[in-house]
């Protein structure tokens, strides 16, 4: 059955990809399209580079200092993965936007104001969203340096610069390429950020160009051509990332005793400064959304609540499907590694919401008005896109389950429903809850395919937030964003806590 | 009758052969150096590893196509014999019905088995709340409930101290008497083989030798066994 599912999934994604390729190949892309390709690569490369470089001092400070609130700060670093991109953008606008905190400060000082729109704005938002991920990946590397090595360094009287040269630099050489590529993949397919902060001939990515081709020009051929290019680039990058990616876990082993005294003097002040700055950078925009949104909560625009309901439904349905699918595939894969399953769960990484959306658009269009199917299509795409993450969360757990209890279960004829009920669900409740929470939050906050399909009265909450912001109704947008982020985290929390409770 | 009919299991450089048979009620210790294939022999009989040649037969029927849980076999592993998230009573219940929908009569049998191994009243505990000896007893209680004609023990008491181990061996003999089962028990201690009473299979040089009466074997061991035991 698992193989059938994997096959069906593979067939579905491949059908969409083929639909794109069939319509897209042989199409001559114009100069504007190639500019979009160039901009995509440049912004993703810059975003990855800046995020990673800035993350190094932050990770080092977190690795070698112990202070109250350190655990909370590390937890905060896990949050942006769940944060809907539209909310992050809104927060950044409140700080760096035309009438944001920064520009009002500059005005008060009589200095010229700065604009957040364009390449630097896109990079800023991507750094905001991905710096924490980079910090976690690098911190993991720091904490993986064996304590014996650190003790040896201490006994040899190494100073900070020797420790860096002999221990930290080799570790960074191993960790940094993975962090760079993973963040680059994320930024290549980013849509909400570019939709809001990019645009125009100078700052359009492939994703945005696909959206415009479908939505404004209704030029499906060109959209397919662009989607094909995106697929090729995304495929190469995703393959590289899959090979280099090490799951960072959430919080395990982050409290090891310090083996070497952390350096005092200016380095202590430096670390303090770095941590203070990054905390401000990560919290101020969210605080701004909170402050701006709270007053608006009382009088939300009429379209917000129905959109919230739609979003929650879409998130719940795609979470249930994705979790069941990922569990089935991970269980089968733990029993016997299968190339087919690996392929089926890796392929979606090479695509993006808009590529899959374009494929679905091409397939559906001859049969029905695509707008009719907006919500089912969103469920489908969200399921496919969250599957790789869920599968990766579950696979080590199903492997451990198989290694520890596989034979015992077999010797007792524990199979099918009984095995699920008495072995798999109780043993895997925790990772299942966590994975389902991730999928739900991702699905809740995603603004991608729905932007292609949504007709009247079908918008999801992220789309409504984007629309309100686009109409410069900032208070209403902030209030809707506040609702969105609350619902996203609440869904994550509910699944995660449910899993923990069931496991206890 | 359990028949190992020209049985071979090969994997890479590793090779194990066996060609002998044993009867219900026999108690056979399996000894030999680590890595010789003692656990492999049990895993092939239990159905976790497939023979690469020959067959395992029970009453003349080839067990090859039979799934582990459907074989006339109960196996106790070195560890992980109980599911830690289920109560002791549930762990025992799985031996009767994998879906755990136990009738009152079946529940009574679980209680009875617990009492039989000295765990009366501990059914609602989780395995983590049991001592090592109690966990071993619980696993044996499940073997008692399943009452399969072959009981395979893959050093399940290796982690216990000498006194507890002797106690467990006594319990194994009791369970075997009650169910009339054929017992195959892996151990690395010749004293355990003696305590089990019966025959011993020596596994060495890629071969599981036919069972020989334990006293006779230990009194006059062949060269390979002498080397293993470290006697002159």
Features:
heterodimer, A: 504 residues, mainly alpha, MetI-like fold, 0% strand, globular, B: alpha/beta, 11-stranded mixed beta sheet, 8 helices, 11 strands
Secondary-structure topology with pairs:
The complex is a heterodimer of chains A (504) and B (232).
Chain A: H1 2-24, H2 31-64, H3 70-78, H4 85-96, H5 101-108, H6 119-143, H7 147-155, H8 160-188, H9 192-197, H10 206-215, H11 220-244, H12 266-296, H13 304-335, H14 339-350, H15 353-364, H16 374-411, H17 416-445, H18 449-453, H19 461-470, H20 474-503
Chain B: E1 2-11, E2 14-22, E3 27-31, H1 38-46, E4 53-58, E5 61-62, E6 73-76, H2 88-93, H3 104-116, H4 132-146, E7 150-154, H5 162-179, E8 182-186, H6 190-196, E9 199-204, E10 207-208, E11 212-213, H7 214-219, H8 223-229
Parallel strand pairs in B: 2-10, 3-8, 3-9, 6-7, 7-8
Antiparallel strand pairs in B: 1-2, 1-4, 4-5, 9-10, 9-11
Helix pairs in contact in B: 3-4, 4-5
Instruction: Please identify the structural class of chain A as seen in this structure.
Output: mainly alpha
How many E-type strands of chain A? 0
Percent in helix of chain B: 25-40%
Termini separation of chain B (Å)? 37 Å
Superfamily at the CATH H level of the largest domain in chain B?
P-loop containing nucleotide triphosphate hydrolases
The share of residues in extended strands of chain A comes to under 5%
Number of domains of chain A: 1
Element string of chain A (H = helix, E = strand): HHHHHHHHHHHHHHHHHHHH
Looking at CATH, the homologous superfamily of chain A is: MetI-like
Report low-confidence residues of chain A grouped into runs of 5 or more: 247-255
N-to-C order of helices and strands of chain B = EEEHEEEHHHEHEHEEEHH
- Range of strand content of chain B: 15-25%
CA radius of gyration of chain A is 23 Å
Structural class call of chain B reads alpha/beta
Taking all Cα atoms into account, the compactness measure Rg of chain B is 18 Å
Mean pLDDT of chain B: 91
The multimeric state of the shown protein is heterodimer
The largest β sheet of chain A comes out as:
none
